[in-house]
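If you are new to this repository, start here. Below is one unmodified record pulled from the training split, so you can see the exact layout before writing a loader.
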Amino acid sequence: MIQVAVELPAVPVRPARPGDAHVLFALSRGFMASGELRPRPVGHYLARAGEFLLAPNAPGAPDAPDGGAPAGCVAVRDEGEGAAVLHNFCVARGSQGRGIGSALLRAALARARLLDADRVFTATTGPAVLFLRHGFAPTEPRRAPAAWAAALDPARGSRVYVRTL
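And here is the target side for that same chain:
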């Protein structure tokens, strides 16, 4: 099998603003319905908009007929003692495979460094291919920040990953 490297265009990522809370919620809702994200009310996004990074969508994209829906988002939260967590990481179905997840992850790691984190944790119910490709490794929940790990729902089957910065 011949593999060809494809150069994807740069994906812009910006900090979310309080006014983005409703579009963050709208993007996340489909992933909540499928069980990929924990259900959260719109108030969660209103209260925590400052934790989010957002990849805006290009006008005319198939999943953003008005050009206003984000292509993806991720939240980065400082847990203290050198730890940060990533949560609510999602890329719109029609935007997957275009480098958006990688761009969001690189931006999230940069933000974690600004928070003086030396390690970043995340949990996922999916195959974690993106996280593994970006240097994350499986870890035990007991190694993660206690309050965050305690909030994980064991019924969802999430696996915890960590990356050292």
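Two things worth knowing about this chain: The chain has a mean pLDDT of 90. The first strand starts at residue 14 and ends at 15.
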